[in-house]
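Input record (one chain):
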Amino acid sequence: MTKKFDKSERVDLSDEQVHWDLGSSQSYGEYLKLGRLLEAQKPLTREHDEMMFIIIHQVSELWMRLFLHELAGVLDCVRRDNVGPSFKMLERISRVQTQLTAAWDVLSTMTPADYSAFRNSLGRSSGFQSVQYRLLEFTIGNKNADTIAVHRRESEAYAALKRALEAPSLYDEILALLSRRGYGIPEDYLARDFSQPYRASKQVAGAWLAVYHNTEEDWDLYELAERLIDMDHKFQLWRFAHLKTVERIIGYKRGTGGTSGVAYLAKALELKFFPELWQIRTSM
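The corresponding structure, as predicted from the sequence alone:
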């Protein structure tokens, strides 16, 4: 039997001081630029799932923007040797990473047939070309000069990536902090070509092991190390979820950007931003 609607079940707003007339104040939609934001979803086909595909990737880019914003704050704290305030930022990054990984769960509701119906409309566009993703990797510590070539036609993006490639990464800055605190970091790790991939060092591993054995005096460095491990761990979960979602939807087809698809994504699973922090766990 259909329940009859009762006006008394409505929320009573009579005693609320709602600003029905905003006057000269900006509105919620104006503040958030929602008109522009919600106009940015422009499917190229009439296929139902293309809208979801676009939204998932746009939302992920927004989360990456926040990730980069928080990383900039962490870098500032490390450079000033004031690590404490960075822990809140690193905790927020951890929550952002959870959201990024969850996005693949939504995308995985798309079947191979759903994706095939509009995949050709993507042309050569691919997540491989995400400027923000590459900035994240460079900023945290995974440098690969070859990857910026695909951005040459976008001068601003290319310049930003080149700056990030050549600048000390978060890990480089943290090693400099360890050195300032008296832990033995090799000089050639403190003044190196930062555009080159990082190579794990026994001396750096020894310095981190000393931090773990000196937690009372340098608790902030110990806590920082654990936050870095959390970031690295969740980055791996994100990459793995990406790989399995791609495998589920397109199998072992090549990616739209020209990579080998699943095989290419599998290579990234072995990458670690902070290798010595993983190595020393066996020594403790």
